Amino acid sequence: MTRTPRLHWISIVLGLLVLMSVVSLHAYASVKPEAVPHEGERHELPAGTLALAFHGGPDPKWTPRTLDRLRDAGIRATFYVTGAQVTRHPDVARRVVAEGHRIGLDGFRTEGDLGEPLNLALAQAALADALGVHTRLVGAPGEVDSGDREHQDIGTLVRMSLQEGKGVVRLHDDGSIGGDIARELAKQPGYRFVLVSEEAPVVASASERFTGAVTAWSQRNGGVVLLLFGTAIGIAALLGLLRTLMQLGLAHTDRRLRREQEPPPWSAPPVSVVVPAYNEALNIAATVRSIAANNHLADVEVIVVDDGSSDGTGDIAEELELPGLTVIRQANQGKPAALNAGIRAARHDLLVLVDGDTIFEPETVGQLVQPFADNEVGAVSGNAKVGNRQGILGRWQHLEYCAGSNLDRQILHALRCIPTVPGAVGAFRRAALTDVGGVSEDTLAEDTDLTMAVTRAGWRVAYRPEARAWTEAPVTVRGLFRQRYRWSYGTFQAMWKHRGALVEKGPMGRFGLLYLLAFHLLLPLLAPVMDLLVLYGFLVADAPLGLIVWTVFLLIQTASAGYALRLDGESLKPLWAYPLQQVVYRQLMYVVVIQSLITAVHGTQLRWMSVQRTGKLADAPGTVPVS
Predict the structure, then answer these.
(1) Exposed (0-12), middle (13-18) or buried (19+): which is 171, by Cβ within 10 Å?
(2) What is the average pLDDT value for the chain, to the nearest integer?
(3) 585 vs 137, 189, 407, CA distance in Å?
(4) Which of 196, 255, 541, 551 gets the most CB atoms within 10 Å of its CB?
(5) Phi, psi (rounded to 5 degrees) for 605
(6) Which of 120, 51, 56 is nearest to 92 (CA)?
(7) pLDDT of amino acid 3
(8) What are the C-alpha distances in Å from 545 to residues 210, 398, 535, 606?
(9) What is the mean pLDDT of residues 582-602?
């Protein structure tokens, strides 16, 4: 398999930057500030010489009318345009040049705002895109004001334009009567009409035209992008609200029904525990001892499958010399092969599959097999908890397990479509494993793949929250990303492999896959848009309402997380870290999902990425010392 495609990080970052740039430029171009006069060069003209300078265009209605008047009078003029208007009406700007007139710049968003370098650069970019040129006529020159903003009488306006008998006459081209004034001026005897400057515009370079094309596209289409942003936020908000309602409804109902139903007689069937292990020297002894210390009343066989470890994992397990322990050694073939080897060697029909970095509580094995009293149950998910929850990263993962994975399982247990029995703590009936051909090697999420297959084969998958197991979570951001990247990518693989369930009548197609699609793919893809739009509104568009909506959304999620902790019998003390988790940790999880999707779309094969162990699970809360 090829290595992780790190260029996808660049794709994600560039994509976000492009989106923010597009909407920011659109907002910038759409807001017209108060005009601030920006003086250009002074042009001294001989007596009896006039240069007509039109400002405010190009306008789709008035500029063509002005051009018609100038053509009838045989006068060439200079049009000081704004960049935003050029982008909106490039065809009108092209007609100005085609009929022999000169193009100058008087602003980007409005007249006279070229004092800022950014505005000048954007205005030149607009010309480069529309006309393929940039101009040296920048800023309104020293002019004779025609007065066409204040007066409507043509005679008065003509006299004001001729008051100095020469110079650059300022006219407007955005709905006034500038074209009519020009026609009347042409009738005055003794005057010669010239351009403000005979210097032609300069051909824009390829880079200038590219920049112009990008900025013009952003200005024209930013509104569409904002509309898509708004739609995405609406969908994300609805999905978030729906998930919260399902958590409050189904998860609570599932727990209430458990309490109200009379529990069946306690059963104690014999159990085989299979532990696939690859380079688990730091944890394997604690894992095996915790299983051997169980208080299950029947026989518990423990099979450790050393999958080609190079750190002495198998030797450590053998040296424990525990009764009922078997160590199988094989060349490294991957976790699915190790699980299948252990399953084949197991003596009993109920098989608990557990990772080599997990600590069981004494009651876990017994609790895990209770749902098998129902002959329709083919698999049981236990309650995986973060053992090393010290530090901010550990607390965040603890909250994610309780408020995310375990709460999801309670919801999906109520719908009878749990998609994942976690590798850390799960049990299977041998008959169910036989029906699906054992553990498949097709995906990197073999636990999800196996669980979906068992459900599609007609077996029910149950959740037993009392079957607690403590697992070691990654202690570094790099390790966390590698683990979640593999999980996310493997889940997408499993969803694609089992897409046929969508046309079946079983619960996996009706609920399970749709739940994963909505809340594990679509919601993480859309939720970052909300964060981006909050930043956009707060920093660019002066729209603090987005921040208020985001804060309310965060408060609802925090309350939901608190409910999940209570439901799982956990303390509410770590809840203080949840808002910070949503600001920082959540972004990493978004990137994981986006990168996984990009990897899948690219068709890249992802390798198995191991996580560095610390060996500190023996001190996990809720466990008892084992020796």
Answers:
(1) buried
(2) 83
(3) 52, 77, 19
(4) 196
(5) -85, 125
(6) 56
(7) 46
(8) 35, 32, 11, 41
(9) 77
Residue pair 434/278 in contact (Cβ under 8 Å)? The answer is no
Angle at 120 between CA 116 and CA 126, to 5 degrees: 145
CA-to-CA separations, 40 to 43, 55, 185, 386, 608, in angstroms, rounded: 9, 13, 24, 68, 65
- By the 10 Å C-beta count (0-12 exposed, 13-18 middle, 19+ buried), 427 is classed as buried
Residue type, 272: S
Which tens digits make up the pLDDT trace of 407-442? 888 888 888 889 999 999 999 999 999 999 999 999
Q: Residue 301: name the closest of 361, 267, 344, 346 by CA.
A: 346
> Counting beta carbons within 10 angstroms of the beta carbon of residue 83, is it exposed (0 to 12), middle (13 to 18) or buried (19 or more)?
buried
Give the DSSP letter string of 160-190. Answer: HHTTTSSEEEEEE-SSSSHHHHHHHHHTSTT
Residues in the chain, overall count:
627
Contact 346, 315 (CB under 8 A): no
For residue 268, pLDDT beyond 50 = yes
Can you name the residues that pair with 275 across neighbouring β-strands?
A: 304
> What letter would DSSP give residue 261?
S
Strands 426-429 and 350-353: antiparallel
Q: Cα separations (Å) of 283 from 357, 614, 616, 617, 625?
A: 5, 8, 8, 7, 14
Q: Could you identify the residue written with the tokens 């009878």?
A: 416
Nearest to 423 by CA among 398, 390, 448, 391: 448
